[in-house]
Write a structure and sequence with these properties.
This protein has 16 helices and no strands. It is mainly α. The chain has one domain. The chain is globular, with a radius of gyration of 19 Å. 38% of the residues are buried. The model has no long low-confidence stretch (mean pLDDT 96).
Length: 288
């Protein structure tokens, strides 16, 4: 195992892979496939798609593993979503969505390319060093079979790496003393998180919840009167990311510096292609 990685190399690699994974949740193919199973609510569709590897769980499990969703929203959908379709049926539909989405965003030539097959094997090699203890979403996805097609193998590997990092990030948020809404508000304040409109519509919080969390952050000296991070707030967010990096170092150390650099290069190229093809809403990221 090599530990000679450039600073933040794993974080940069994880960022592009996470965004590629997330194309699922903004895809019209997801609405089409899960609507065919009987789903009608957009939130139920996205919640079911991500939680299906956990099995027919209730709102408490989803709240714990997703961290920043309002339990009241989750209780509206769980466990009732599993009366609409089983987790197994949702997982089958999810793979169909990934297939259709990547074909549309990346194109048939890219899907058949040696570069995509290489990216899949690099990402799967990195995932060999992921660990399941205290990482429920990673562990649940790791129990799923690895698909045969290179583009599906790649997406599966990005899911493993995304959820492995995400599970560790929750521990870092707890250590930082950031509750679910405070985590969202402070992330948005960095300019890299989802806009408040997207957060409130998808996570089930009200504007009053957002403002109350902002006030708590101000009382800790982390947010200023204009909603910008203070120096202390910037430092806390960076400390949280650095702790996440430490908890997520194993897969990238296992892959080694050259492998991480190559996977980052390939992942960013695919991500740019997907973004240009309209993978994400234009107002997804920002403070407004």
């Amino acid at each position: 195992m090599s530990t000679l990685l450039p600073p933040r190399a794993g974080r940069r690699c994880a960022s592009s892979l996470n965004s590629l994974h997330a194309t699922l949740f903004f895809s019209p193919d997801l609405d089409r496939e899960l609507s065919a199973l009987g789903f009608t609510d957009p939130n139920a569709i996205r919640l079911a798609a991500r939680s299906a590897p956990l099995g027919a769980v209730g709102p408490g499990t989803v709240a714990a593993t997703f961290y920043n969703y309002n339990h009241a929203l989750l209780a509206q959908h769980f466990p009732a979503v599993w009366d609409t379709a089983s987790p197994a049926a949702v997982l089958d539909a999810r793979l169909r969505v990934v297939d259709a989405t990547l074909r549309r965003l990346l194109g048939e030539e890219t899907l058949a390319s040696a570069e995509l097959a290489e990216a899949a094997e690099l990402a799967l090699r990195a995932a060999e060093a992921c660990t399941g203890h205290a990482r429920p979403l990673y562990a649940a996805n790791a129990d799923l079979p690895v698909p045969d097609a290179p583009h599906l193998r790649f997406w599966h590997a990005t899911t493993l790496l995304r959820e492995h990092r995400g599970d560790g990030h929750l521990a870092a948020l707890l250590a930082a003393g950031l509750d679910p809404v405070e985590a969202l508000v402070s992330h948005t304040a960095t300019g890299k998180g989802m806009s408040p409109r997207w957060v409130l519509s998808s996570r089930g919080w009200r504007r009053a919840d957002w403002e109350a969390a902002a006030e708590r952050l101000r009382s800790r000296g982390l947010l200023d009167a204009e909603g910008e991070l203070t120096a202390a707030g910037v430092a806390l967010r960076e400390e949280t990311e650095e702790q996440t990096d430490r908890l997520d170092s194993a897969p990238y150390e296992h892959l080694g510096a050259a492998g991480v650099e190559r996977l980052t290069e390939l992942g960013r190229g695919f991500l740019i292609t997907a973004a240009v093809a309209g993978a994400f809403p234009g107002d997804l990221i920002g403070k407004g």
